[in-house]
Specification:
Blueprint (H helix, E strand, L loop, with lengths): L7 H14 L6 H10 L14 H10 L7 E5 L5 H7 L4 E6 L2 H10 L6 E4 L13 E7 L10 H10 L1 E12 L19 H5 L6 E10 L7 E9 L1
Parallel strand pairs: 1-2, 1-4, 2-3, 4-5
Antiparallel strand pairs: 5-7, 6-7
Helix pairs in contact: 1-2
Length: 227
C-alpha cells in the first residue's frame, strides 16, 4: 500500500520553520515550490484556478482594465494574474520564488501577463504608485507577524492615484494574541486589515465571510481607493 501523504499545511509549516530558524523568513516560499515540483510537497494555496473571492469581486465590480495597469502580489503559479490580464489590464505578476515564476510561465505559455521575480519587502522603485489595480491575496499573512507592517506598507505604496487595492486574507479575532498563532499562515486581525489604509488610501469596503470549506475559518475581502 502507498504511504499516506503528509498534510500539506504541516509540510509547509515545517519548511517555513526551517527557514525562520536560519533567519530567512521569506526563503521558505521557493523551498516549498521546489519541493512541490519534486513531488515532495503540495502548495496549500495553489488552487489551479483564480481565488473565488477575486472572481466574486470581479462579478460584482465589473472592472474594465482597458488602458490600465495591474500588479499581482505573490502571484504564485499565476491563476489570479491570468484572470486580471483577461480583463484587459497590462498585468505585472511577481513572486519572490523563482520556481513559482517558472511554473507560471509553464502553466500559461501564451499569457498576456508579465511574470517576474521580486521581493515585496524591497520592490523595484519604478513600481511605486504605478498601478491602477493592486491585488494582494494571502501574501502578507504568509509572512511572520513582525514583518507584516512593512509588507502592508509596500503593498499600498504600489497603488497609483485613483487606483484600487484589493486584499483577500484569512482573519483572526483581535483578542487572539500573536504568541498563540502558529503559522504559516499568520491570519490578519481587523486592526491589521485596516492598517492598509493611509490618509490618501481609503478603505471603502470591508467584508468578512466564512470559508466554504471550513465555516469556522473566516476571511477578509477589503477594497481601498487612492485619492
Amino acid at each position: 500500500m502507498p504511504e499516506p501523504q503528509e498534510d500539506p499545511d504541516v509540510v509547509s509549516r515545517r519548511i517555513a520553520h526551517e527557514s525562520l530558524s536560519q533567519d530567512d523568513p521569506t526563503g521558505w516560499f521557493d523551498r516549498l515550490y521546489s519541493a512541490a515540483e519534486d513531488g515532495g510537497a503540495v502548495v496549500p494555496w495553489d488552487r489551479g484556478t483564480a481565488h473565488p473571492m477575486l472572481t466574486e469581486w470581479i462579478d460584482e465590480s465589473h472592472p474594465d482594465g482597458t488602458g490600465k495597469t495591474a500588479l499581482i502580489v505573490g502571484a504564485g503559479t499565476g491563476w489570479d494574474a491570468e484572470l486580471i490580464a483577461d480583463l484587459g489590464y497590462e498585468t505585472t505578476a511577481f513572486d519572490i520564488s523563482p520556481t513559482a515564476v517558472q511554473a507560471a510561465h509553464r502553466n500559461h505559455p501564451d499569457s498576456k501577463a508579465q511574470y517576474v521575480t521580486a521581493d515585496l519587502l524591497a520592490p523595484p522603485a519604478e513600481w511605486h504608485r504605478a498601478y491602477d489595480l493592486v491585488v494582494e491575496i494571502y501574501t502578507v499573512q504568509a509572512l511572520p507577524i513582525d514583518l507584516q507592517p512593512a509588507a502592508i506598507k509596500q503593498v499600498g505604496e504600489q497603488v497609483a492615484p485613483g487606483g484600487t487595492l484589493l486584499v483577500i486574507a484569512a482573519s483572526r479575532p483581535d483578542d487572539v494574541p500573536d504568541s498563540d498563532v502558529e503559522g504559516p499562515p499568520w491570519p490578519l486581525t481587523r486592526a491589521a486589515i485596516k492598517s492598509f489604509a493611509t490618509p490618501d488610501l481609503r478603505l471603502i469596503q470591508l467584508d468578512q465571510s466564512p470559508s466554504p470549506v471550513d465555516p469556522t475559518i473566516f476571511r477578509w475581502r477589503a477594497e481601498y481607493l487612492r485619492d
